[in-house]
Structures are given as C-alpha cells and as structure tokens.
Write a structure and sequence with these properties.
Layout lengths: L6 E3 L4 E3 L17 H5 L2 E5 L4 H13 L2 E6 L6 H13 L8 E5 L5 H5 L6 E4 L6 H6 L1 H8 L3 H11 L3 E7 L1 H4 L18 H22 L14 E7 L1 E3 L11 H10 L5 E3 L5 E2 L1 E3 H15 L6 E5 L5 E2 H14 L12 E3 L14 H6 L8 H23 L13 H13 L14
Parallel strand pairs: 3-4, 3-6, 4-5, 6-7, 7-8, 8-13, 9-12, 10-15
Antiparallel strand pairs: 1-2, 11-14
Length: 430
C-alpha cells in the first residue's frame, strides 16, 4: 500500500515517505530557536512510538528533516500516517524530508539504509519490566545487541550529537535517596533496568576510548566532534499513549473505566511514580539537543518533576476529572481492586532533575492534575469523534468501547495535528 508520495521497498520491507514541508514553530522550545533548524538532518529510532512520535512532530516543526527507524513491535504505523498528514498540511516554507524505515535496530541492513545525519535520538527499546523477566533473550537483544551497529553508524555517518533515551525508575531500582539524583547508586530489580544501564555505561566508555585515540573530539568546533547525553525519564504520560505496558497507567485505567471494568492496582495503592507530561519531556529532548550543539556533555540527566504520586491518587485524580466531564462510569466499580505487586517492580520512584535544570535550563512545567485533565479531555474527545463517525444509533459515550489503536489514530488525526496547533500546551508566541 503506497501512502501519498511514498513507496514500499518490499525486499527490505521498508516504507519511505518523502514529504516537502514547512518548519512552523508550534512548540514552546522551538518557537525562538532558529538554531534548531540548522541541525536539520536527524534520525529517531523508535519514532513510531508514544514518545518518539511526539518527538518527531516537534523536530519536523523545528524545520528538521527526519528519518524514523522502527520495527513497529510496539509503535504504531498510524502514528507515521498521522505525521504524514501533518506534514502535508504544513506550508511550504522550506523543502524538508520525512522518511520512515520499517526495520530493526538489531539488523545491520537497517542501518545501511540510513543516510548521513547530524544527530541521532535513540528511543527504540524493549521497555516492559515483566517481559524482561519472562524473555531475557529478547530484552538483551533489544537493549544491548544493537550497540555495535549504532556506534559503527556514528563513525560512518559523522554523527555529532546522540541523545539516548533511558529509564529512571527501573534504572535506579530501590533508590537510596528520594528524589534520586544521577550520581545515586543504581540497583535494578529487573533485567530491563540492567540492560538500559549497561547501554548507557557502554556508550560512555566507548566515547572515552575513541576520544583517547583521537577518532572523535570533545571540541564542538572540531570536524570530528561527537558528544552524547542520556535522558533518564520518569513515568511519561499524555495524549497518544496506548493502553499496553506497565508505564501506560493512565490509558489502562481509562480503558477499564470506559468499559465498566474493575481497575486492578498492583500492591496496596501506595506504590509511587514521578509522572511527567509528554510535552515537558519533548522540551527536555530539544533543550539537550541544542545544548550538545555548543558543548560536549557526555552525561546522564534525570527528566522528571521530583514529585511522588501514588497509584491510588492517579485513579482518584482521573475519577474526579472524568466525573466533572459528566462521565459517570463508576457505579459498578466505585473503587479499584488490589493485587500483589508484580516481580521486579519498584515500590517508590521519584527523580531529582536539578542537573538538567542547571546545565541545560529545563524544568517540568505541567502539574499532574492539569496534565491529567488535558490528557483525558482529548481521550473523551476521541471517543466523541468515534461516536459521530461510526454513527451508532442511540449510542451513548459511556457505552462505546475504547480501542487503543482507534483512539490513537483519531487523536492524532483530529486533535493533536489540529491546524498546526499543539492542543495540550500553551499556544506559541508569534
């Protein structure tokens, strides 16, 4: 199936979408950062996923040409289609490119298909704690085995900046300090946290070794300059997140509420996480990217709010917001059910993000209550759109079943990419 101006390369099972589009600034970081557009050829691995697709959107709006490498094991091709639709709607201020390559980061042939880019955002990963316990081979292959392909590509393509996406909660495990700073010892409780830690450590060691051999330089003005940063993300939530995986507690709860199903909380409800809104996370990526253009960082950075939120409080916050919208689906299941904690899960998680604040100037700005409300507004809007489009006679909003893929598609097409405006953060200044 061909999409617009793209074509399918069936021998490699790759889909390329080439689009001419405008670098319109719709993000708070992008609106005053003309320098971002100068770094205009970037690769995003995992760009079809929740965070990755938001990042690709922001990069396109900044004026950058973007290549996405994703095997669609957890990401959605509908995100790619939505990005294509966005691109087609943008004014032609500049000729830029958007390419999607369906392939695995573990396959060297995938890397051979990518042209030279200036920057790499690495988000592709196996991200499930429970899956990492059940299938250690898959976890290791997804989060470790690809590294030689990445480092070879960096040298071949002359990549200057690499931003690695890491996890905070699974990385630190049972933290000695809360909120947890970057230099706190890490104690992963599951293979997932261990493999993500290993990748970050390897990246640092590889960089130091090649600097000592003068193959790369830490001088941002040098031709062979290379530097990296690793963003250890707290629990990211926001529009477009699907109801699968341990991290997607908001869409998981929403799915259950819409379908009048009981919500299960693992533990006694006291397990805490540091919830950070996806728009804030994208700003952290962009700010770090810009920072690497001026100086070598070679450091990990926590990205979170520094605030612990209990599972039970997430449910209550969502219940309150949905009831205020007139969604009364709580008669059958007014309170959640409780089950034993799953193996490898951390009971308390919260990060200290002062380093990225002092060195790069980033700080989370979205309060959890406001972020939840904005996210649920769009989820309910997506259901309303489905109701109208399906033309179900007499169907009530609370009788519609929530489908993650359908919601994701509709939200992207009708809410997130709405006339070039970002629907869940402030409108940019002119």
């Amino acid at each position: 199936m061909a999409l617009g101006a793209g074509k399918i390369l069936t021998p490699a099972k790759q889909i390329w979408l080439r689009i001419h589009l405008a670098g319109l600034a719709a993000w708070r970081m992008v609106k005053s950062s003309a320098s971002l557009a100068q770094m205009n050829r970037v690769l995003v691995t995992g760009g079809a996923g929740f965070i990755g697709s938001h990042l690709v959107e922001a990069l396109l709006r900044s004026g950058s040409s973007v290549w996405v490498l994703d095997n669609l094991s957890s990401g959605s091709f509908k995100n790619i289609e939505a990005l294509q639709n966005l691109a087609q709607e943008l004014a032609l201020l500049k000729n830029l490119e958007f390419h999607f390559i369906e392939g695995s980061i573990q396959d060297p042939r995938s890397w051979e298909e990518i042209p030279n880019v200036e920057s790499v955002f690495h988000l592709a990963a196996q991200t499930s704690v429970t899956q990492s316990v059940r299938d250690t081979d898959l976890d290791f292959a997804s989060n470790i085995s690809f590294i030689p392909h990445l480092t070879k590509y960096i040298l071949r393509a002359g990549v200057r900046r690499l931003i690695n996406c890491n996890t905070a909660g699974a990385f630190y495990g049972v933290a000695e300090t809360l909120p947890t700073p970057e230099d706190d010892p890490f104690h992963p409780l599951a293979p997932y946290g261990a493999t993500k830690a290993m990748a970050e450590i390897y990246l640092g060691a590889w960089t130091r070794a090649l600097r000592s051999d003068l193959k790369i330089s830490g001088d941002s003005q040098a031709k062979n300059y290379f530097s990296w940063a690793s963003l250890r993300l707290a629990n990211v939530y926001g529009p477009g997140q699907l109801a699968h995986g341990e991290a997607g507690i908001v869409p998981i709860f929403f799915d259950k509420i819409i379908n009048h199903q009981p919500i299960t909380i693992f533990g006694d409800g006291g397990k805490t996480r540091d919830y950070v809104f996806v728009a804030d996370v994208i700003e952290a990526f962009l700010a770090t990217w810009k920072g690497l253009n001026h100086q070598a960082l070679d450091l990990p950075f926590n990205v979170g709010t520094g605030v612990e939120t209990r599972d039970l409080d997430v449910y209550r916050e969502m219940k309150s917001a949905l009831e205020s919208m007139g969604l009364n689906n709580f008669k059958l299941n007014p309170e959640p059910e409780f089950s034993k904690v799953r193996p490898g899960e951390v009971l308390r998680s919260c990060v200290d993000s002062h380093r990225i604040g002092s060195m790069i100037g980033w700080k989370a700005r979205m309060k959890f209550s406001d972020g939840i409300r904005r996210t649920l507004d769009l989820m309910v809007e997506a259901l309303q759109l489905n109701e109208a489009q399906l033309k179900v006679d007499g169907a009530q909003l609370n009788d519609l079943r929530f489908n993650g893929e359908r919601f994701n598609d509709e939200r992207f097409k009708n809410a997130r990419f709405n006339n070039g405006q970002h629907p869940y953060t402030e409108s940019p200044n002119p």
